[in-house]
Amino acid sequence: MLVLLVIFMVTAPLMDFRIPMGLSRPVPDPPPPSEQVTLVVERGDLFRLAGTPVTAQALPAALRMIESGQPGFLLRIEVDPDADYQSAATALAAVERSGIEKYGLAD
């Protein structure tokens, strides 16, 4: 019993030691999600931008036109599993040439 008393007498002052700790501040609300436009690459070198059929030659101009109307939108690229690799590469090159910064591939 005396041993427990000695242990508590020794450890009690140590329990008062405080570690300085910075707590995080509340984060403001995230910005609203940006507008999302879908580019679908289909079989046979066919492209659909926001549901509208577009040729490979007209794709960069159509992307620039959408970018000028909706700056900061998110482009979602969906590639049909039956589409050629060249069609997907053409779509990605058109996106790069049009200057769109926010784009991603969909599953």
UniProtKB/TrEMBL annotation:
GO terms for molecular function: transmembrane transporter activity. It comes from the Bacteria. Pfam families: ExbD (PF02472). It is a single-pass type II membrane protein. Gene3D superfamilies: 3.30.420.270. Signal peptide: none annotated. Keywords: Cell inner membrane, Cell membrane, Membrane, Protein transport, Transmembrane, Transmembrane helix, Transport. GO terms for biological process: protein transport. The keyword Isomerase does not apply. The keyword Cell membrane applies. GO terms for cellular component: plasma membrane. It is found in: Cell inner membrane; Cell membrane. The accessory proteins ExbB and ExbD seem to form a complex with TonB. Involved in the TonB-dependent energy-dependent transport of various receptor-bound substrates. Belongs to the ExbD/TolR family. This is Biopolymer transporter ExbD. The lineage of its organism: Bacteria, Pseudomonadati, Pseudomonadota, Gammaproteobacteria, Lysobacterales.
